[in-house]
Amino acid sequence: MLLGILVAIAAIVVLALVAMIMYTAVTKHKSAYKKKPKKQEINIEREKSEEEKKEEASVPYKNLQTRFKAIGIFVAACFSILGVKIFSMQVLSGDKYTKESSANATTSLKTPAPRGNIFDRKGECIVKNRSSLTVLAEGDVVYDNDVLSRLSVVLGLPYNIIKKRIQDQSFGAQNRKVVASDVTQMQAAYISEHSLAFNGINIESRTVRDYPYGALAAHVVGYTGSVSDQELMEVKEGQNIEAGDVVGKSGVEAQYNSVLSGDHGERIVVSDADGNIVSVKSEIQPTKGSDVYLTIDAHVQYLADKLLAESIAPKGMIGTGTGSAGAAVVIDIKDGSVIALANYPTFKPGIFTNGISQDTWNLYNTEESYYPLMNRAISGSYPPASTFKAFTGLAGLKYHYAKDDSRWNCTGSWDGWNSGYVQQCWMKSGHGDINFRRGIVESCDVVFYEIGKLFYDNKASIGEEAMQNEIKKFNFGKLTGIDLDGEEMGRVPTPQWKSEHFKDVPTEASWVGGDTTNMAIGQGYVLVTPIQLAVAYASLATKKLIVPHVFKEVKNDKGAAVAKKEPEEAGTLDVDAELLDKINDALHGVATENASVANAFQALNISAAAKTGTAEVAGKRDFAWTACYGPFENPRYAISVVIEEGGGGADTATPMAAKLLDASIKAESGQYEEEIKFIAGSSGKSVKLAQASSSRQN
Q: Does residue 212 have a cis peptide bond before it, meaning omega lies within 30 degrees of 0?
């Protein structure tokens, strides 16, 4: 406003000068006119009188005087308007502008708060904060080339990078800019001891995320990063997020960001007319966020992470072991608590602490790396193979297409419609004469082809989706509701789905008998996630539908729980208990009578119910599956393991599932066979898979 007044005064002064110049010019012109000699002319008309001559000579001067008066009036008017405006501002609105001026000079700057820690179910800290020596710069340092050059030398950073960071406005124009984090004690000491040479530069100890066990439970805890413009536009009610804040980007860090985030600190600063800070009036320290306790057991989680890495990448690169990727889930079936949720390849959340490099980000989003940031346990959709027979078998029992006395003859191949389209059993030599229970124990495909055929042949009386409706009772094709972002729904295919999916390929859009028989053995178009399968096997054991969760409780700084997760059911399992008992008995038979499976459980002296699967995936080697729960007599934990391109389920996934079940049972009573150690993130590199493709197994 003051600048505007000065401009107005300057304009009026200019006008006055112009008027004076014009007046001087007129005066000189008049003097010259009077001194100019008259020419002798021949007067042929009447000679004018002296008065007429004087009147004629004064006409030019009268015109100039009129113009000069007009200019004078204009200048006077400008001064009058300016005077009125100054009177209004200084007298009538003086208090208002004084307050606004004071507000402009005083600015409130927010300072970030430390995030709350993350613990496992028994109090083991798996994500905490650590001190980071941070170099901060006032905004006007960007104009001091000498200081920028010295910082470049001391910090070992390019001059342009330092300048760009100080120019960054994402933290607010007057907030101090972060030049570098995690600087060494020597660098910090040098800058502090030579403060005159680093005018406007401060060293501050800030807190950043620390992961003491590396990639342990990486996809559960997630990672953090600076808030984006889009996130600022979508801040939920009740949350206080400022530009430049660090927020959760995935996993628990994102899901419970409002709990983990603390309260901002505040600096009240006084700035001059150019916006430069001249003093700090007051400062309130930030308040740390609340601590979150998870249902994860760090010891079981460590084992899951370790087993996947040792199986898939024993030499640090995918392709040096068995499989290309995998996931494992362990659930406490009493309340849906997730004891372990592991993926491989995985990543170290710490790479995001000071901003992930573009090279690493690009590498982690390539086929060569097999996408380490993907949470396969909840978003990887796979054909479940023979692990699905527990549910299609239940459907057969419900409709009496399978009974205690039912028997079939497996020759190793099947063409129930005499169409020439032959479907194979995994055992090419055949199982011979076999009943329903044995069909599950030995995983005979022919038994389930026959069950699927009966569903298809009787669709007119029982409906086209009778089998699918029984499967969906276990919430396949739906989200489990786990409190992590990115969960996929999987798929239970139906005639309507196929018609819509292949609407542009009419020849493929019709539902045929082979679609039903493929679904009966967990192949075809059916897809499930590892978390879905673990939850479904938990439902088999408990006869209830559960909701999995990783959040346990929030504790305050005194260690008292202020919020807890209550067990939640996803509805009522509408399945006959007697039929469930028959399926569970058959699954127990898999873990005790099927030699290729039983050995893994018997070696650890575990009584369990289990089912393996070997899924065929177009263009890839077979995927290995195992789903189980135990102890069988008093079920407590449900587990699913999948190894992409891992071959037979019994060979690859079952030993891992058995070890996780054993560790979970022992962890309940505090028995741990090994301490938690550092888990390395994926290198992002791979070599051609070593193992050859195998034929599908049970």
A: no
